[in-house]
Amino acid sequence: MFNAAVSGERFVAVDVTFRNTAGPEKHQAVAVRNNADLSTFYRCSFEGYQDTLYVHSLRQFYRECDIYGTVDFIFGNAAVVFQSCNIYARKPLPKQKNDVTAQGRTDPNQNTGISLQNCRIEAAPDLAADLNSIENYLGRPWKLYSRTVYLQSYIGELIQSVGWLEWNGTNGLDTLFYGEFNNFGPGSDTSKRVQWNGYNILSPTQAWNFTVYNFTLGQTWLPDTDIPYSEGL
User: Fold this and answer.
1) Can you tell me the distance from the alpha carbon of 80 to that of 147, in angstroms, rounded to the nearest whole number?
2) Measured between alpha carbons, how far is 12 from 32 in angstroms, rounded to an integer?
3) What contacts 129, CB < 8 A, 6 or more positions away?
4) What is the distance between the alpha carbons of residues 20 and 194, in angstroms, rounded to a whole number?
5) In 1-150, which residue ranges form alpha helices assigned H by DSSP?
6) Rounded CA gap, 1 and 29, in Å?
7) What is the pTM of this model?
8) Contact between 191 and 162 (Cβ < 8 Å)
9) How many Å apart are CA 150 and CA 211, to the nearest integer?
């Protein structure tokens, strides 16, 4: 089993694989816990099952990364953007449900949330071989003011038509903020999505607020270049 904790400021990782080998039977097993402000991960791989990537706090950016997991496998309360990443749901334990995200905003004044732009949400090979055995969702609210958006992303057939899941039947469905904007693919149809007050089909202006520059309040550059990561809508 391997895990890593990242702290400090302006941490950068390029072409690194972070893997937790505990397997699904060990339940919560984090591969990376990140609370480094203005941290950037480029072409990295995060491999685990439940709770793979703990985006704990502060401002974070992930570009062209691969992320594998099962239950709540991207979770935390950072202001974090995933751009052009491949998100792979694996096969969990029997009777478990897969949630790509579990965002933990505890106060409506916190400038935090999870934004996924131009990503691909697909089944890993083990799940793809038995796709109908498990329910898969875009996310569920870990805390009362949970905030997560999907922008211009490919959503595969693995995702349930309702899109989002309650947190064990608890409240927060009116205070959370979940949004989708211009996604595509067989799992992107929003006509049967949840009817929660906190669920939104975003306007272009709303979606723009969750891009790298605006959401993290600072431009992030590709290491060793003068090219910014930010992509327009």
Assistant:
1) 11
2) 14
3) none
4) 33
5) 125-128
6) 9
7) 0.92
8) no
9) 11
If one counts every other C-beta atom within 10 angstroms of the C-beta of residue 59, the result is 22
Of residues 15, 37, 51, 99, which has the active-site annotation? 51
Helix (H) or strand (E) holding 204, with range, is helix 204-208
- Among candidate residues 15, 37, 72, 130, the one labeled active-site is 72
User: Is-catalytic flag, 72?
Assistant: yes
Measured CA to CA, the distance from residue 52 to residue 87 in angstroms comes to 11
Q: Which two tokens stand for residue 56?
A: 């704990």
Determine the Cα–Cα distance for residues 207 and 215; give it in Å rounded to an integer.
10
Q: What is the pLDDT along the chain (233 residues), one digit of tens a residue?
A: 458 999 989 999 999 999 998 888 787 889 999 999 999 999 999 999 999 999 999 999 999 999 999 999 999 999 999 999 999 999 999 999 999 999 999 999 999 999 999 999 999 999 999 998 899 999 999 999 999 999 999 999 999 999 999 988 777 899 999 999 999 999 999 999 999 999 999 999 999 999 998 998 654 444 444 434 445 55
The whole-angstrom separation of Cα 15 and Cα 3 is: 16
> Is 174 considered catalytic here?
no
Structure tokens, 78: 């950072």
Q: What share of the chain is helix, strand, coil (3-state, %, to 5)?
A: 10, 35, 55
What would the two tokens of residue 196 be? 């929660």
